[in-house]
Amino acid sequence: LRGFLLLQSSGINAEYGGESDEDDAPKGESEMQKMKRLAAEKKAADAAAKKDKPAPVLKSNVVLDIKPWDDETDLQAMEKAVRAIKMDGLTWGDSKLVEIGFGIKKLRISTCIIDELVGLYDLEDNITELEDYVQSVDIVSHNKI
């Protein structure tokens, strides 16, 4: 064992094409610098790849209850007026009439919205502006897709 240690310390690695221990300090610094440079390059490449990748489109399913003024309100005309509201990122879905009481029904309508393009409160305001038909609008459910 003692002879092995003497051979290593005397630079036996240099005889077989390797480098001696004396060269390790500068080589270690250059290896460290190389590792830092490669890490920085990888980080920059990852950032560029992430920047090129489009962000996911966030959508929501929203169900609205639209209440008429009274039992004499034409609900079919109200539904047509509501569906006539056009906004980028707004898609109307199914609808049905739900009994409230005393012969009055409300319109329950579903919609799919793209969150960045359609503000839910803006949509609610647009529906409420149909004053001939609409008394109030309630959000029944709001689920992210």
Give a quick precis of the structure.
The chain has 145 residues and is α+β, with helices and mostly antiparallel strands.
Gyration radius from CA atoms, angstroms: 35 Å
Q: What structural class do helix, strand and pairing data support?
A: alpha+beta
Q: Write the H/E string, N to C.
A: HHHEHEEHE
β-sheet strand percentage: 25-35%
Instruction: Point out poorly predicted stretches.
Output: 20-26
- Total DSSP helices: 5
How much helicity do the residues have? 40-55%
Distance between the termini: 69 Å
The strand count comes to 4
Biggest pleated sheet: 4 strands, antiparallel
**Molecular shape:** rod-shaped
What is the overall pLDDT average?
82
Instruction: Report strand order across the widest sheet.
Output: 2-3-1-4
Any overview of this molecule?
The chain is α+β, with helices and mostly antiparallel strands and 145 residues long. 41% of the residues lie in helices and 30% in strands. It has helices at 2-9, 12-15, 24-52, 75-83, 120-128, and strands spanning 59-68, 90-101, 104-114, 134-144. Strands 2-3-1-4 form a four-stranded antiparallel beta sheet, with helices on one face. Strand 2 (90-101) and strand 3 (104-114) form a beta hairpin. The longest helix is centred in the N-terminal third of the chain and has 29 residues, at 24-52. The two termini are 69 Å apart.
